[in-house]
Design a protein that fits this description.
The complex is a heterodimer of chains A (277) and B (312). Chain A has 13 helices and no strands. Chain A has 277 residues and is an all-alpha fold. The chains are: A mainly alpha (277), B mainly alpha (312).
Chain lengths: 277, 312
């Protein structure tokens, strides 16, 4: 009995050590954003500042156009989430429920594109964006983000729809409904847990996407958060870490709040997360 | 299902599909987006890789055959970049799986604070690559926190280590960042797998007198084999996607020695404007990762049916 207790204590200690190691960078991020800008390279460096100040946040929120990047990112991410939820769920519904020529090929192609690193397509996609006049437009990001998250979303939602009894569909058809009616009254409500799970990942993907936005957006007022944050860093390099990290903390807030609220979907949604960059 | 069909013989299967032709309108948006924004670029990329491709109006692209591919294969920097990517995968993938699985086993074995630990370990996963890269850059800077601890506090080295200015250490920091950011995802995936292992197996084993370590190797590991394969595939693909961390922390410096495949491809495309070269490199990359994925599926020992992607 005694050894069992000691073993348990050891497990908790190990887990605690791991948490300390993994969260130190996050803590350092927050603490740096809270210290006066002048003392950023003070000697000796401290994990937690002596004097806590909100001056970095004040500057970032009221002195520069940072809020605009925040709104830009929010707009792009939310639109991507809604669009991809609608498109992926309807595509998944068709793949799960109907037979049509080329269906197997289509699904295989969708699966295969999940293997290829998204960035390898950046050149032809850039040319496509030029042709469709989507370059240097905030809304121009959305179709590409939607296309990127589509395979994974479709795959996940399709798996879930296949678990919904076909009898429900048939009842609607008997009442004279068509595919739209089934989609609206059966599939959307019943597959909502799967749609919610992928939507969280889609939000994250659009919210933090860096290389594509960097490539197609030029104007300052159209920039999304990752571009503004890294651009601000590049511009002023060493001196202004406080501002950069204050921006970082603010841009992390919606994600963390969303994560805490939808924690159980994150877990059930499993995959993605560290993958699509 | 069969019962339902028996009860309603007047509705043959073919007819239901015919009646519901409007499904085509549900299929179209996804099909169009997929074909236009993904399939078309894949085909276009292949075409580009055989041309000295020019972007812009009035400029002519010249067909050059396999010249781009030969250039990619002969380029020493490109070889360096691809080998850096492979090393990145070889270092980060097993580390993430081992640590992630370890944390999952520990969290699985406790009763209290389960969710708290799960949330805390998951935080790096939802931190964006840009922010994570900047934080690591700050910590590993010459005058950064780590150098202070190593040199001034513990007196392990005489001088500050220029972590991000040297090829080996620069890549090491990127690998460390990759592992740090990936542990949480693995933890969640393996935690779900561990919950699927029937507890009776462990009970039987402990009655037979086998210890915890033996149980882990003879029960846990074989039972979560498919999840390990799943993680291997996803993480290998993820490793080939590494871009933002290198781009922001080292920028490929010094002298392109810390480039990975995608940063080098990006440099070739948007700095050197050699689109044909970059397209050929993209295709080679896509083929390498596809090959790795196929090999993993083929040679990884498995005995159960695939369970990948089932929402639980």
């Amino acid at each position: 009995m005694r050894t069992a207790k000691r073993y348990k204590l050891l497990v908790y200690l190990l887990l605690l050590c791991g948490v300390v190691i993994t969260s130190t960078p996050m803590l350092y991020l927050v603490s740096t954003s809270l210290r006066p800008n002048g003392s950023l390279y003070e000697y000796p460096p401290k994990l937690w500042p002596n004097r806590i100040t909100l001056e970095n946040y004040h500057y970032v929120l009221f002195k520069v156009d940072f809020y605009r990047s925040f709104l830009n990112s929010l707009f792009v991410a939310l639109t991507t989430v809604v669009l991809s939820a609608l498109i992926a769920s309807s595509l998944a519904f068709c793949l799960a429920r109907f037979d049509f020529p080329g269906k197997k090929l289509l699904f295989a192609a969708i699966m295969a594109t999940m293997i290829i690193p998204g960035m390898t397509l950046i050149i032809p996609q850039f040319e496509l964006a030029v042709t469709l006049r989507l370059v240097n437009k905030l809304g121009g990001l959305i179709p590409f983000y939607t296309a990127w998250v589509l395979p994974f979303s479709t795959f996940m939602i399709k798996g879930y729809i296949e678990g919904i009894p076909v009898d429900f569909d048939e009842a609607i058809y008997m009442d004279g409904g068509n595919a739209f009616t089934v989609y609206r009254t059966i599939i959307l409500p019943l597959a909502s847990p799967a749609i919610a799970a992928v939507s969280i990942f889609n939000f994250l993907t659009a919210w933090e996407e860096y290389p594509w936005a960097l490539t197609v957006l030029n104007d300052l007022e159209k920039r999304t958060l990752p571009i503004t944050i890294s651009g601000f860093f590049g511009q002023h390099n060493f001196t202004l870490w406080g501002y950069v990290f204050a921006m970082s903390v603010i841009s992390l807030l919606p994600v963390i709040i969303c994560f805490l609220f939808f924690q159980k979907y994150f877990v059930s949604g499993l995959s993605s997360g560290g993958i699509n960059h | 299902m069969t019962q339902a069909v028996l009860k309603m013989p007047e509705i043959p299967k073919r007819k239901t599909i015919k009646v519901n032709y409007p499904f085509i309108f549900l299929l179209l948006p996804g099909l169009v987006v997929f074909l236009l924004f993904t399939v078309y670029p894949i085909v276009k990329l292949l075409v580009m890789s055989f041309f000295d491709w020019q972007i812009g109006f009035g400029q002519k692209s010249v067909f050059v055959g396999l010249k781009n591919y030969l250039q990619v294969i002969k380029d020493p920097i490109c070889r360096k970049a691809i080998s850096n990517t492979l090393i990145y995968a070889l270092v980060t993938v097993p580390s993430q799986i081992v640590i992630g699985l370890g944390v999952a086993v520990l969290i699985h074995s406790i009763k209290r604070f389960k969710i708290t630990f799960r949330v805390l370990y998951y935080l790096p996963v939802i931190t964006s690559w840009v922010i994570a890269a900047l934080v690591f850059k700050y910590i590993f800077n010459n005058e950064g926190f780590l150098n202070y601890v190593l040199t001034d506090l513990l007196r392990l080295t005489e001088n500050y280590i220029p972590w991000l200015d040297r090829p080996a250490t620069g890549l090491f920091v990127a690998q460390l960042l990759g592992i740090w950011k990936g542990i949480g995802w693995n933890m969640v995936v393996f935690l779900a797998a561990l919950q699927g292992v029937p507890p009776e197996l462990y009970e039987a084993a402990s009655i037979d007198g086998s210890g915890k370590i033996k149980q882990f190797f003879y029960i846990t590991l074989p039972m979560i084999k498919n999840t390990i394969l799943f993680a291997l595939v996803m993480l290998s693909i993820g490793a080939f996607n590494v871009f933002t961390s290198i781009q922001l922390m080292t920028g490929g410096k010094p002298a392109h020695q810390t480039e990975v495949a995608l940063t080098w491809m990006y440099y070739k495309a948007f700095e050197a404007r050699d689109f044909g070269y970059a397209a050929a490199l993209s295709y080679i990359l896509a083929m390498i990762i596809t090959l790795i994925t196929i090999m993993l599926f083929k040679y990884f020992p498995k005995d159960h049916a695939q369970r990948i992607g089932k929402l639980t």
